[in-house]
Amino acid sequence: MLSQGISPDCYVLPSVVKATAGLSSLKTGVQVHCLAFVNGHHSDSLLLSSLVHFYLKCDRLMEARKVFDRIPRPNVVACSALLSGYARKGCVEETKELLGEAVEMGLELNSVSWNGMIAGFNHSRHFKDSILMFRDMHSEGFKPDGTSISSVLPAVGDLEMLPCGVQIHGCVIKQGLSQDNWVVSSLVDMYGKCARPNEMSKVCEELHEMDVGACNALITGLSRTGCVEGALKRFKQFKRQGLNLNVVSWTSMIASCSQNGKDMEALELFREMQMEGLKPNSVTIPCLLPACGNIAALMHGKAVHCFSLKNWVSNDVYVGTALIDMYANCGRIQLSRRCFDSMPRRNLVSWNALLGGYAMHGKTKEALEVFNLMQKSGQEPDFISFTSVLSACSQGGLTEEGKFYFDSMSKDYGIEPRLEHYSCMVSLLGRAGRIVEAYTMVKQMPMEPDGCIWGPLLSSCRVHHNLAIGEIAARKLFELEPNNPGNYVLLSNIYASKSMWVEVNSVREMMKSKGLRKNPGCSWIEIKNKVHMLLAGDNLHPQMPEITKKLGELRVEMQKSGYLPHTDFVLQDVEEQDKEEMLCDHSEKLAVALGLLNTSRGFPLQVIKNLRICGDCHAVIKFISEFEDREIFVRDTNRFHHFKDGACSCGDLW
DNA sequence: CTAGGGTTAG
């Protein structure tokens, strides 16, 4: 149009401005603004109105206001846009002032104006103001419509606000909006956040025809209240009934599974959704990837990575971050790094994912390098970054450096230490054998220590055979988490290592009287795209005879080279010979043996375990890594062990 | 011929 020599008038310009707002391109919009100005359109209301909207879209509140003030006779539309803009930014005072000015100018506000402010305040997390606006709207004589309801409901996010939510539900019924799908979705979401599963179902049942949005909110709500089984049941039921489930439905269900320990189900759902002809998007991928990481399903994870490359979502910052996390959890920290380096954009979470990965792998030097690098790149660390830094120092035995970072955190960064930071410090001091110092720190903490403090203290007492402090820590843990069998096992391990069998027995009696049993050890290993689960003392796996035979052969080889079993990891007071046999059926050994049997020499294995790896298994796997020429990754609840050529990356300290 | 508001997945 311009190259034809036609100068744009005040009719076409608002459309052009709208297009630039859609692009969120500040530069282009400003050019159009200039163009309008030189063409003499200084004071056209509609044009200036569209510019107000444009500047708001680009997050330029001041400019938007300046343009608004040049409108000769501002109308409701422009004013409403500015009002919602102020609310979106959380400018409560400005919103109220402008509201006053609007009345002075004689502007008649309408529902759209109110709804914009209500939604805006929720956007800026000013939930109370959102609800106040909803009330004001009502007292100004406006009846809430469907938009008002779904705009205000996100303000009700917890039990404290539930009474407000119930009142709003009352409005819904009174205004006859019970069949409005958007309203119902928001209501279900609200009851889900307030942990009211019965109310969720009730609202859905009252719908004449179930809506996919309400279904999605229901699935998320059920999983949020810890009921994945229920969510899966409803999901299958809706699918059977022929409800048109969309990407959001499938993604919600996948997220719900991967967040609640149903990792295999999440992978299966991903496959199914594609068979149903639905295309996973850039949200589906980061919902699914944690499932791969949780069970160290590296092949599945790589397949998902390929999928994201093929479908052009791999540049998404959430996808990239989830990939970093997945590879780290699958034992491939170098691949995490490669993903990180190839990301076009990163945020705090991406940096923390890499930092946490290095910490979990005990790569202290790399973790500290990344910590420096992130700051050089202008990314401020947060409390999570410090948790990883301290944990890395603890894993690497950098006691003094750890103390330095701990002090620096509050002094130089203004981040007050939380429980998890103290927890790292207890591990840090404890592993250095400075048990008394660790205990002193616990006693001086400004907050009440919980299980994440006493637990590591007890563990280090177990490693360093400190009976006195171990007993104190154990007593606290028995109060705080009476049903956690691990604590009883640790204390009895300390007694057992000192041959105090009477005490060992009394701890075992305590466990028995509470009906507690030692948590069954459980390991997973992925072989040729199939994930195998092995339990301690497993008899179910079809290859069990071969596994036992393999382990027997290995034991003979080990004894030839002077290996002695670490029998103090066996709880029971039994004969030495039996103890050795008990060590032999630990699940991590079974998983490694299964891997050896089913893959060719030189192929790396990765195993994950639901408890901490035991000292004997650690020694055995070190031997295997050399004897069988295998790299073996074992992830336990605490960290990664990378076995290679007879040594472990943890340096035998964990 | 032109300008304004909402829910459900990370």
Automatic annotation (TrEMBL):
Task: Work out whether the entry's keyword set contains Chloroplast.
Answer: no
Q: Which InterPro entries match?
A: DYW_dom (IPR032867), E_motif (IPR046848), PPR_At4g14850-like_plant (IPR046960), PPR_rpt (IPR002885), TPR-like_helical_dom_sf (IPR011990)
Q: Which Pfam families match?
A: DYW_deaminase (PF14432), E_motif (PF20431), PPR (PF01535), PPR_2 (PF13041)
Q: Mind listing the GO molecular function terms for this protein?
A: RNA binding; zinc ion binding
Transmembrane regions: none
Establish whether keyword Endoplasmic reticulum is in the entry: no
State the Gene Ontology BP annotations. RNA modification
Q: Which UniProt keywords apply?
A: Repeat
Q: Which residues form the DYW domain?
A: 562-654
Residue windows of the PPR repeats: 75-109, 110-144, 211-245, 246-280, 347-381
Q: Which family does it belong to?
A: Belongs to the PPR family. PCMP-H subfamily.
Please give the name of this protein.
Answer: DYW domain-containing protein
